[in-house]
Amino acid sequence: MIRSVMQRVTKPRRENKTKPGAHAPPLRAVYRDLYRAWGPQQWWPARTRFEVIVGAILTQNTAWSNVEKAIRRLRAARALNPETLHRARLEQVAEWIRPAGYFNVKARRLRAFTDLLYGRFAGKLNRLFALDTAALRAALLSVNGIGPETADSILLYAAQRPRFVIDAYTRRVLVRHGWIGPEAGYDEMAALFMRTVPEDTALYNEYHALLVRLGKYYCKPVPQCAACPLRARLPASGPRPL
Ligand code: SF4
Prior knowledge:
The chain is mainly α. It is 57% helix and 0% strand. Helix 2 crosses helix 13 and helix 3 packs antiparallel against helix 10. The longest helix has 19 residues. The two termini are 36 Å apart. About 4% of the residues have low confidence. Iron/sulfur cluster binds next to helix 11.
């Protein structure tokens, strides 16, 4: 499947519509550069759709290694399911997820999600995921503590919908290369990818994972351009300020 994903970004495609006459950011070529450098990233690292949702909420403001510890504790307590997380005392949920940091806040966010699930969908993920993409995104965004990045992570990795996920790493890359202004908001960046890169769940899955690797190891607060697979795509003057 990944091979076909590569082929789809290689196909000629209509021009980017950012601005008439403007240079389209080479986002399909960027994908090819990264994929050739590192290959498939095997995301999202979770066993079930519900685990993706829990991970997407717990990963806010913390390293993934801390999320893994919290997920292991939930699994060991047999609590990695909607019903247990919905029925348990909030203090108990916070204790299970303690390694993820901000555990009281995140326990309330998990509860807000299960409140939605039980309040409107009888506790069934299948019913929630039966919504069309726009309605599902709106339902997720209605949950206290679920913003656009978390909602799109759930849409892409749990519900298998073609929504591009934007995170701080992605923003850094776009701004440093001059492909978007430093003032650009989430929706503008997501729209840029979604009109430039073919709408394809597997491709968006892989692309976001590659950008995370790029941001983690190369496009760090101090960029490591000399060894980066995207160095040839930098402006002649070097990385732009954030
Ligand atoms: S070349 Fe430099 S600015 Fe561009 S993505 Fe790599 S580290 Fe970031």
